[in-house]
Amino acid sequence: LQFLYFIGNMQEHDVFKTKLRASGRDPVVDPLEPTGSYGFWEKFEPALDIIPRAIPEMLHKILMAVGKGLLVDPERDTLIVKHILAWTFSNLPLSCYVLWYADTECWTIWLWAALHFFMWFTAMDTYVLGLHVISHRAVFKPFIATPLWHYYVSVLGPIFGETPETYYVHHIGMHHSFNNFFTDLSCTMGYTRDSFFDWVRYFFRFLFVHGEVFQLFYGKNNKLLARFFAGEIGWALFVLYNFPTRPLPTLLVLVAPVLIMRIGMMAGNWGQHAFINPDEPATNFGHSINIIDSAYNRRCFNDGYHIIHHIYPSAHYTELPQLFKKDIKVLAEHDCIVFSHPKWDFAIVWFYLMLKDYDTLARHVVNIRDTPRTHEETVAMLKERAKRVYSMDEFLPNKDYKKNQ
Predict the structure, then answer these.
(1) Which of 86, 100, 201, 394 has the most CB atoms in a 10 Å sphere around its CB?
(2) Does the pTM of the predicted model rise above 0.85?
């Protein structure tokens, strides 16, 4: 059902864009046209989301009442509760069945496993970006915030491929604190960003980052360090507890999703920070990109507005398109990169980079500058910004980091 709703949304978007083109209002050409990109598609009305379509009106009213009791901002965040309930009554029971009860001697285990992966794959990015939302903002009221947080990261997290607490420590404690600079362990500057070999190095560094995380936080933020290792060790112990008696289900439900999710997250982070402006690599304008007019924004809480998110990390996801529109002249002055495609996300940007297909990438760059580049100039600019040009030693003496920051 999740997949069918997803396909339906994609088709609806294609029809919508066709109507826009017929009326002369193409959001790819004019991404700031209010009735195009913003009025319908990317202001993120909960009524347009995948999950609420499957919820009867009577239950919808009940959920709205529940949201008012649980949420700080029920008008905009009831969607989070809807997703949690949907996953609790669909993905979670299926994962538990495959892990503990499915007959491993029968061929049907593969049928159940395929269904599990299918449902997980169609919801994995929404889960991660929901985690992103509740990590940045106080979404739940204080009396219920801690239990719901632990349910989201410790119960739902492992079946979606997220070890408990790891995301929060990495994203809030490190990534936004060090902002893709060299002290950020997920910094992309030291790599040639159209090189698959360099990306593999980057991925394995993240996969076995535990020692570097310990060095980074020990004595500086022991609370974050404790959260990180509690989550990683807790997940490992849970895997070791289940593996001796249920090895195949354990690999299918608990191990494979974590590995696949980390591949996806590192491909996504690489795409978000692949094109670094050599004139200001340490600023939010110079190390990130935006993706607009995309189904990804509707599915994943407007995560495509990554430059805007780094500038306003506490802004509500429904506000990001309007903040982008407000700051468009500033983004143009800083020569920021904005992509526009109805079906792109950051992993797609990574994919075209691995192919070195700059022609396709350049064709979907939105010209926001007063003096637009030609296609050839856009290709050259993207190639320049994907180069590995910085190291700590050569960067600091030549750049005024504090001024840029």
Answers:
(1) 86
(2) no
